């Protein structure tokens, strides 16, 4: 009987997978090779068999128990599920608090960023958030310092020597002399003897 149900389940799963694949292929315009279809069916069957085995093991476990044990087991199972749900809720609430902390600092974190710092406990989440905010502040300050250390860029990107000598001036082409005149007229007049 169980083998017949499993065989029917396998055939149903195969039909569902092939139907899903046909719909996907038509809607996306994607075609699959027979090997790809077989691999997808094999994966789907493996998942269905694993789930069936888990359900079968659960049924065997329940069959061995008496009524009181079954009730106790179901109660423990429900309590564990409730604890997991509460932990998820607490984590979700902590995620909201962490997002607010970052928003107050002018930072818009992604869900992946929040996943790195959020814990079920408020203290742990706050500590992680503060550490990340401190890191961001240090990086910003380092970058600001690096930018301020740089030299003021020139309009055309070329830097003139700090001091142009008469010899340097004599080797300049006309464009460079015009540039020198525009950027430093006093030096230009000194080098030309006041003749423009």
From TrEMBL:
InterPro entries: Gp46 (IPR025580)
Positions in coiled-coil regions: 38-95
UniProt entry keywords in alphabetical sequence: Coiled coil
Bias (Acidic residues) ranges: 1-14
Disordered, as annotated region: 1-35
Ranges of biased composition (kind: Low complexity): 15-26
Designated name of the protein: DUF4355 domain-containing protein
């Amino acid at each position: 009987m169980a083998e017949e149900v499993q065989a029917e389940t396998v055939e149903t799963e195969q039909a569902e997978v092939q139907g899903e694949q046909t719909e996907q292929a038509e809607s996306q315009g994607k075609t699959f090779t027979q090997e790809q279809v077989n691999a997808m069916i094999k994966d789907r069957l493996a998942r269905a068999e694993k789930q069936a085995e888990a359900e079968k093991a659960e049924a065997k476990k329940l069959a061995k128990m008496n009524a009181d044990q079954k009730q106790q087991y179901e109660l423990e199972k429900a309590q564990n599920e409730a604890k997991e749900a509460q932990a998820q809720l607490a984590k979700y609430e902590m995620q909201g608090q962490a997002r607010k902390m970052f928003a107050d600092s002018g930072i818009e974190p992604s869900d992946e960023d929040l996943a790195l710092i959020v814990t079920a406990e408020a203290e742990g989440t706050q500590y992680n958030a503060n550490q990340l905010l401190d890191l961001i502040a240090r990086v910003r300050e380092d970058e600001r310092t690096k930018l301020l250390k740089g030299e003021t860029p020139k309009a055309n990107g070329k830097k003139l020597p700090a001091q142009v000598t008469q010899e340097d001036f004599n080797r300049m082409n006309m464009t460079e002399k015009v540039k020198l005149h525009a950027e430093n007229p006093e030096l230009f007049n000194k080098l030309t003897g006041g003749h423009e």
